[in-house]
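Troubleshooting log. The previous structure file for this entry was overwritten by mistake, so regenerating from the original sequence record. Sequence copied from the archived sheet and checked twice against the printout by T.R.
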Amino acid sequence: MGKPVNVGIIGCGAIIAQYLTNFRRLHAVELVAVADLDPARAQAVADDYEGVRAVSVDELIAADDVDLVLNLTIPAAHADIALKAIAAGKSVYGEKPLAANVMEARQVLEAAAKAGVKVGCAPDTVLGTGIQTARKAIDDGLIGAPISATATMVTPGHERWHPNPDFYYQPGGGPLLDMGPYYVSALVTLLGPVVSVIGAASHTRNERTIGSGPRAGESIPVTTDSHVTGILMHASGALSTLVMSFDAVQSKSPNIEIHGELGSLVVPDPNHFDGDVQLFLLGAESWETLPVSAGYVDSGRGFGIADLAATAAGSEPRAGGVLAFHALEVMESILVSARTGAAVPIQSTAARPDPVPLINLNQAATVEQTLPSEGIRQEEVQPVSS
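Regenerated output below.
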């Protein structure tokens, strides 16, 4: 704590640009190396970022000056890269999901616990002012005891804009595993862990047509469900309804609504770090917009790594592997339930991460003061039985 964490990035695709923008303004993060299966892409990043070198994947993992590996590879490679980095004594932070399936994710957490390194995972959007202001409203009792939530993500499909959308329509992809981590992580942050789920799923097309880039017009197969609905039963007793779709066109519903005994909250898009939180109290005549009261101000992708860097040894990062594992099991179990028609109990748990006080990291030399002396510990994860 108190010094920057040296980061090496594996995977220099489209998402890296957002991380690079924020790394330039985070005191707690120092980018030192990048790698990609396409060396030219890694070199392009290194040429544009002073002090960064382009190396092979193996060289980055073995590098003495890399403390943490940021894994921006495709989901199918998440566990493999994470396990190699952990074996080399590195902490890891990955794009969502933590791994392609619960079995691989369990291996990552168990390896990290044995090696004594930290695991973090996107989304860190839950650390921004949007979700954190909503959480503070719930914690302050503004809506009374939470009763239910709805979470809706509707889009006609990523192939319309993504030049290489194949993995979105393969096992490990689909709207639930692609976008669900934002929503499930937010629901757990707001309402606590999930104990059981019921799911249903479908897909309307067996092929998709790429709409942009050099492969425009090419058809790709759909081998996973592209519309998923789930009911989440939280340990608190609250019930959440989840709708994730790559089939429908648009939704007018708020991304997330939370309903309590005394009022209702509209929570901003969990794919973003900020946004208005609106409150309608019992007996009121209209919605009111709550002032920003918690979370990292002006945050973006990569703030979860700064938070991890300041997390005390033995404590779980807020955007940590425990939460990511639980979210992955919830999503995987929804798909199991969709196939079997039965409710599926969730074997893991994840305590609500510690709240983020209102703080601007661009004006703070360190985030140490925002973290408690005791956090969620790695061993609190309860993996699914083999």
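Residues 5-123+299-317+351-380 form a domain with the Rossmann fold fold (CATH 3.40.50.720). Archived copy saved in two places this time.
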